[in-house]
Amino acid sequence: MFGVCYYPEHWSENQWASDAQRMVDLGLHYVRIGEFAWSRLEPERDQYAFEWMDRAIDTLGAAGLKVIIGTPTATPPKWLIDEHPEILPNHPKTGRSRGFGSRRHYDFSSEIYLEESLRITRKLAQRYGRHPSVVGWQTDNELCCHDTTLSVSPAAKRAFQGWCKQRYGSIHSLNEAWGNVFWSMEYPDFPSIECPFGAVTETSPAHQLAFRRFSSDQVVRYHSAMVAALREHAQDQFITHNFIPMHETGVDNHALAAPLDFASYDNYPLGRTDLIMAKCSAEELIPYMRTGHPDYATYYHDQTRGLLDRGFWIMEQQPGPVNWANSNPRPLPGMIRFWTLEAFAHGAECVSYFRWRQIPFAQEQMHAGLLRNDSSESEYLPEIRQVVAEVQAMGLTKEQKTHSRIAILNHAQSNWISDIERQSQFFETDTIQRDYYCALRQLGLDVDFIDEQTDFNRYALIIAPSMPMLSKALLDRIEKSSTTFVFGPRTGSKTNEFSLPHALPPGELQRVLPFRVLSTETTRPDCPEHLVWKGNQYQSLVWREFIDAGHCETIATMNGTHPAVLKYGQRIYIATLTCSRFLVDFFEDLCQSLNLATFRCPDGVRIARRGGLTFAFNYSSQTQSLEIAREGEFVLGGFEVAPQDVAVWRTASKK
Ligand code: GAL
C-alpha cells in the first residue's frame, strides 16, 4: 500500500482534481491531509470553515483515494495564541517563552491548550468520523519534535509540583529521595519546588529525572485524551501517530503508542545520516551520503514496529533532498525505491511519501516533493511507479513479519539517564544501543525491539545495551526467564531515584549476576585499551568498570588482567564500551552457541525477512553476490545485486 501527504490548502482548488487523478495513476491508495490547517479550518474563534475540506475530501475520494486526516494541533493559530499567550511553552534552557511563527508552540501542561485541542479535534471527528472516504486519523504531527517535550512554563511548574506530591506524598520523602541535603537543596513544601533549570550549575540528577518522568507523563496524558476524543466519533476509522524516535521525543513512546491502532514513522534516511554522522570524517560519510547508512533507517523501523508489536506505516518517506539537515544531498538514483522496499521488509504496511508537490513558499520550499513546484514530475517519480508494481507483483503486504529470536530491550528512561549524567561526553545510551543493533544487523539477523512487558520466552537472546535502572518487576521476570540475556555497561548502576545502590552496582541485578563494580572510569575515545577475548585483542573504549567478579566467570579481560565480560548461567555482562569488531565477533559466537544462524553480510549488504520472503539490500558501490540466497527462488533480482539494488527470494519454509 502506498500514500502521499497533500496540502490542499496550499494549492488552487482547480488543481485538486488533477492532483488526485495523478496520485491514483501513480498507484497511490492513501492521502494524508490537514495536519497543519487550523488557521484555515477555524479562521476565528468558533467560526468554522470546513467547506473547503469537505470539497477536498470529496475530490480525493471521488478519484478513489482513501483519506487520513491529521488533527491540526501542532499549529495553534495566531488568534488563539493572542487570546491565551500562556499556551506557549517556555524553553527549558533559557526559561523564555517560545514564540509564534513556526509550529509546535504549545505547552503540554497547558490545560487551556488541552481543552482547545480537544475542541477542534472533536469538531473534526464529528464532521468526518463517518465520512466514507475518510479511513483514518493521525494525531497531531511528530509529537515532541523540535525539542518540545520539556517546558518550564508556570503551568508546567504547577503541574510538576502536583506530580511530585502525588509521587512522594510528603516533602520529607521527596527531599530524602532526591538527596536534597546536598548543597542545602531541601524544599520546605511542594509549592516551592522549582523546575530544574536556570540554576548556577547542574541541578540534582534525581530532580532532573523526576522532571523528565513528569514531562513524559504530560505528553502521554495530552495524547491519550486526543485519541479518546477521536474515538468518541470515529469508531470505524483507524488512529495512528507519526512518531519520531524515542531518544528524540524524550517520552516513553511505548506508553504514547498504547491507545493507537498502529504506529507510524517518518523516514528521512539522508537527513538522519547527515545529522548522526555530523562528526565523522568525510571518508566515513561519503559512501553513505546519498544512500543513507545501512542501519539507520531500519533501526527506527524496527523500533516503530516494536511499539505495538505489529505492522506500522511510513507516514512520510523522503522523496529527494530535504531542507533541514546540515547538508541536504540528493539521493542516488534508485534509493527511493530501495528505501520503500526496505520499509516493507521491516514490517511496514504502507509507505506514504512526503510530499506531493514541492511548495514554492515558506519554510520548506527547498524540500523536494514527488512533483516539482511547476507540477512536473521529479526524476524520482519513475522509481515509485516501479516499486508500486513490484510490491504488488510480490504480494508483499500479504506476508506477515514474524518475530525474530533476538530482541533489544528498549527503555526510555535509560536515554534520559545518560543525558542527565553522562560521566563521559561520549557515553550516550542511544548511540550504544545503535552500535549493538548495527553489529547484529551485520550478522544478517532480524532484530525486534521490546519493552519490559513483552513475553521474554519468545526470544533466544535479549540484549539491554545499557539500562541503569531496572524495576523490581523486570528483575523478577529476568530471574524467572530461561532466555539468554546480555547486559551492557552501567546496567543496574542506579536506584530508582538516581542514587548508587548500597550493595554497589549492578545493584539488584546481582540477583542474577553476582559480581560488584568497585569503581568506574571514563576515557577519551581516542585513548582505547585492550579488551582480550578468546586470545584476540579488541578495544575497550570510553567506559570501563573495575570489577570484583564474585561468583561469575570472567570470559574476557581488560588488558589481560581485570574482568571485562562476565558470565553467570545464561546472563552475560559487558563492563565496557567496545569496538564494533568485538560486538560482531562476540554475538556471532554467542548466536552459534544458541543455534541461531548468522550470516556475515558483505560490505554494505543487509538482509531482512518478512514471512516467506528474504530481502537483500546493497548499500555499497559494488555488485555483491549472495551466497545466502542459494536455497531460494528469486521473486526480484538475482544472485548478483547491483549497487543500490534489492533482491528478494522466497525460502522453502516460512521462518
Ligand atoms: C517532518 C514533518 C513534516 C515536514 C518534514 C520535512 O519531520 O513531519 O511536516 O516538516 O519533516 O522533511
Total DSSP E strands:
25
What's the CATH class label of the largest domain? Alpha Beta
Bound molecules: beta-D-galactopyranose
What's the mean pLDDT score? 97
In the CATH hierarchy, what is the superfamily of the largest domain? Glycosidases
The helix count comes to: 19
Regions with little confidence, pLDDT below 50 for 5+ residues: none
Task: Give the overall form.
Answer: globular
Q: Biggest sheet, open or closed, and with what strands and sense?
A: 11 strands, mixed
List the helices and strands and how they pair.
Blueprint: E1 2-5, H1 13-26, E2 30-33, H2 38-41, H3 51-62, E3 66-70, H4 78-83, H5 111-128, E4 134-138, H6 154-168, H7 171-178, H8 205-233, E5 238-243, H9 246-249, H10 253-257, E6 262-267, H11 269-276, H12 282-285, H13 296-308, E7 312-317, H14 335-345, E8 348-353, H15 381-394, E9 406-409, H16 412-420, H17 429-442, E10 448-450, E11 461-464, H18 472-480, E12 484-487, E13 516-522, E14 529-533, E15 536-548, E16 553-558, E17 562-568, E18 571-574, E19 576-578, H19 580-593, E20 605-610, E21 613-618, E22 624-625, E23 633-636, E24 640-641, E25 646-650
Parallel strand pairs: 1-2, 1-8, 2-3, 3-4, 4-5, 5-6, 6-7, 7-8, 9-10, 9-11, 11-12, 12-18
Antiparallel strand pairs: 13-15, 14-15, 14-16, 15-19, 16-17, 17-18, 20-21, 21-25, 22-24, 23-25
Bound molecules: beta-D-galactopyranose.
